[in-house]
TrEMBL record:
It comes from Cherax quadricarinatus. Its cofactor is a divalent metal cation. InterPro entries: RAI1, RAI1-like_fam. It is an enzyme of class 3 (hydrolase). Keywords: Hydrolase, Metal-binding, Nuclease, Nucleotide-binding, Nucleus, RNA-binding. The lineage of its organism: Eukaryota, Metazoa, Ecdysozoa, Arthropoda, Crustacea. This is Decapping nuclease. It is found in: Nucleus. Residues 5-136 form the RAI1-like domain.
């Protein structure tokens, strides 16, 4: 930090690892157990969550792992990746978004899977070029 750098980020709450979406979807995910860790530092509260699905058997656990791997593979294929390449689960885009809710500021980094090159602008002011792909679990 330089002498002119403010001592805190300009946000009241900083969400790490999908903490705000976990909170918002709680009523729709009764089988998910989560906890939130929060720490205050220089006037901002940093929050992260730890989730744990209720899996009652090894078969359910193995099936959940397969869904996660297949989800990454499908996203890789949809975004122009070679279907013969290995799974690359950490190839994604991040942006930092500041949102005001009444007088409270939230700062978080949502995931995006790809960018539409026709809409992408270098100034990053317009996030409409970023795309998030959702994969449904089909049994």
């Amino acid at each position: 930090m330089t002498e002119t750098t403010p001592p805190r980020l300009a946000a009241d709450f900083i969400g790490i690892r999908n903490v705000f979406s976990t909170i918002m979807r709680t009523q729709y995910s009764p089988g998910e157990i989560w906890s939130i860790d929060a720490v205050e530092f220089n006037g901002s509260i940093y929050m992260t969550t730890h989730t744990n699905r209720k899996l009652t058997s090894k078969t359910q656990h193995d099936l959940a792992n397969k869904y996660e791997i297949y989800g990454h593979k499908i996203k890789q294929y949809i975004t122009g990746g070679d279907p013969d390449d290995g799974v690359k689960p950490n190839k994604e885009y991040r942006s930092v978004v500041k949102l005001m809710v009444d007088q409270t500021s939230l700062l978080f980094a949502p995931l995006q899977d790809c960018v539409d090159p026709g809409l992408y602008k270098k100034n990053f002011k317009d996030l409409s070029a970023f795309v998030k792909i959702k994969i449904a679990k089909i049994h």
